[in-house]
Structures are given as C-alpha cells and as structure tokens.
Specification:
With 202 residues, this protein is an alpha+beta fold. 34% of the residues lie in helices and 30% in strands. The protein starts with 14 loop residues before the first helix and ends with a helix.
Amino acid sequence: MDARRHYSSDVAFTPTVKAIQARKGSRKGYAGMEERGSWQTRINPDLAAFIEAQVSVFLGTANAEGQPYIQHRGGPPGFLRVLDETTIGLADFTGNRQYITQGNLTDNPKAFLFLIDYANRQRVKIWGEAKMVEDETLIARLMPAEYKARPEQALIFTVAAWDMNCPQHIPQRFEAADVAAALTKRDERITALEAELARLRS
C-alpha cells in the first residue's frame, strides 16, 4: 500500500471524498469499515473464481492530464487470468489500433477494472496499476486456447485494493449462449414429454 495512504480504501476515498461523505451522512459507516480492515488488497479464491469466469471487463485509465478513458475487453471465460494474489493478466488482442490505453498507461500507470456479472447481479471494482508487456512467452501463456483473435501484447494489472458492491440497481441479464442452452434443454424436455404422452394414448 502507498505510504501516503492509511487505509486501502484511501485509493478512492480521498480527503475530498471523505468530506462529502461527512456532509451527506455516510462517513461514519465507511469509517467503521476502515477500522474493521478496509478493502481487501489480495485476490482471494472467491474473487479469483469470479474474475476467471468473466467474459467481459471494462478497463479505466487516464492520461497525464487526467483525462479519463474506458475501454472494453472481452473473450471466453478465463481470458482474464489470475497470476498470483495481487496480479491479473490478459492477452491484449489487436483492435482498432488507436492505442489510447497503452499511451495512457505509458504516462500514468494508475488503472481500474470494473467487472459485472449481470446474471448473478454482482459487480467488482479493482484499483491498481497496469502496464503493457510485449513478451511472446507471456502472451502465449495468457492467450485463451483456440480463441480466434490475434494477440498483440499482454496487459498486467497489479491490484492495490478491491471492493464487491451490493446488487442494487443491477438489471438481471443473461448471456445469449446460456439462454440458447436453456431453451434447447426445454425443447428437448417438451419433445420427450410429447413422445411419452403419445405412447400412453396409444
């Protein structure tokens, strides 16, 4: 943890944020959270399972002037890889070649991951630092098996703190593949029941 911060949540709860919390009545609750240990700074098994089950992630960065940028990254389950208790990696696939994220990280390594599971109405916020690594061995290690994409580099994210939010206001949505599988299973069950009914009638 940064020596300038007393609690891990100080990565987000700046003095200005805390002043607003105090004015709006939520500071006492968050102060209690801080005293109980604040946000976690290590990836535990539950978080690791959540991360590696995702097929989508939003990566936030900012340039040297503080201008923010959010980029979406996606892939099959496991495209986000937990490398150890403080490190997440992914193969960075070739896209529109604007390189805004890479440029931002070159000037300012601070980064943020936002993961949301609509089906289970869970979201995780992860603060840390990130860098792009052009290393063929690492890229090959992070590349999802049989995924049809061309990796250009690897992104390594070092965790500073993370928080899992409540499900309030998260709409429940399901992946198209999961819906298709459920409908196929339903249709197969209907076919079997219709066949059984026809047999009993005969």
